[in-house]
Amino acid sequence: MVTASERNQARIVLIAAFILCIFAKGCGYQFAGQMTELGNQYKSISIPMFTNNTSESTLEKIFTKYFREEFIQNSNLPLVPSREADLIILGKIDGIKTSVVSYREAEETRESRVTIRIKLKCIQTSDNHVVWQGNLSYYEEYFQDPDPIITLQNRQKAIHFIAQYLAEEVHQRLAAKF
Predict the structure, then answer these.
(1) Which of 35, 43, 142, 158 is the most exposed place for a label (fewest CB within 10 A)?
(2) Parallel, antiparallel or unpaired: strands 45-46 and 51-52
(3) What does pTM read for this prediction?
């Protein structure tokens, strides 16, 4: 008959072995969202400059930066020029909208929301097959300040947050697909 003490010792040994396996090289454990399987099927990726169909200048640079950073940091695919890539992610910023969320007084805005829509296509370059495509949007609130420069900075932070969030979301969707 196994005593409670022996069961607890066995549990501790199993937990320690599991933790050791997680940190050991080559045990096959991988963090969710890493694109190792995508990397087995494809050897390189390209993310050209997004196109911007809005009147808001620099959005294309912001989104391209965050998408490239996400794939550089969280996949095992090297980022290369389009002519050398096995996979290309094409992005288009399709819309941006600002709306009022709350007021301080009758006509004074306290908080606003910026919403950005993007269209994406992931293309396999060997045969121009569209591997994945989607329309995504996300929003973030920001505070209005009596100083318009601070309000602009708050809005820019919200835009950067949206770009980073959508880059992470697309990376996770592609990693889940493969």
Answers:
(1) 43
(2) unpaired
(3) 0.76
Whole-number Å distance between alpha carbons of 2 and 7: 7
Residue 36 · residue 30 · CB < 8 Å: yes
Rounded-to-integer distance, Cα 48 and Cα 146, Å: 38
- CA–CA separation, 84 vs 68, rounded Å? 16
* CA dist 164 → 47, 139, 159 (Å): 15, 12, 9
The domain covering 32-177 belongs, at the CATH homologous superfamily level, to: Lipoprotein like domain (3.30.160.150)
Distance of alpha carbon 176 from alpha carbon 178, whole angstroms: 6
